[in-house]
Amino acid sequence: MYRKFLNARSPLRLLEKGLHGGLGPGNLGIVVGGPGVGKASFLVGVALDELLRSGRVLHVSMAHTVAHIRDHYDTVFEELAASARLENGTQVHVDVDRNRSIRVYPKHALTPEKLREAVKVESETTGPPSMVLIEGLDFKETSREDLADFKALAGELAAEVWMSVSYSKEQIAELPASVARVEDLVSVALALEPGEDAVVLRALKDHDNPDLTELHVALDPKTLLLTRH
What we know:
- The chain is α/β, with parallel strands linked by helices.
- The protein has a single domain (24-197, 209-219), classed as P-loop containing nucleotide triphosphate hydrolases (Rossmann fold), CATH 3.40.50.300.
- The chain is built from seven helices and eight strands; from the N terminus they run αβαβααβαβαβαβββ.
- It has helices at 12-18, 39-51, 66-84, 89-98, 112-125, 144-157, 177-180, and strands spanning 28-33, 57-61, 100-104, 131-135, 160-166, 188-194, 199-206, 216-219.
- α2 (39-51) crosses α3 (66-84).
- The longest helix has 19 residues, at 66-84.
- It is globular and about 45 Å long.
């Protein structure tokens, strides 16, 4: 329904070119960044891109309230609608909200079993999600078995699963140790780093591609959409 409105300012447009087609269904992707760099906004942008393709998104958070997450979506959508001169923006916004579900859990409370329960409820009421976002998961405290189960769920749903990972430093030279230990479970890893006038997005892992030098994307620091030129 919304293919003619696809978000040309989504960073996924360049990721799809630079990352062998993007993340892909059944795969686990992560975005790594320091405090306040915009990991949540990046995930919201990824979700809106999927929603504008008529997908269904389940957004799970242990970092923010439902109201805070909704505000994030509204801010990025309004920027998108204005920059794309989106026709029938109000109706599109309603449909986007209808196809997006938000669930909030206490810190450290999310388990694969709880996520499966949430997916089951969503599947029975509105349909299975084509994308699942997980923010606030503590990678250091999450077992390999649980991460493997999250990836298995992605495969069962034929959905993309994106997670945010917090890092203590602004610059990220390599995969954090908490991610490196389960690197084989992660298909795509991206780093968000603050720049002078933009947030820089670059690849830390691109499936099995060893060449990561070409992907450097500048994002608007407010919305984490591609900067205007």
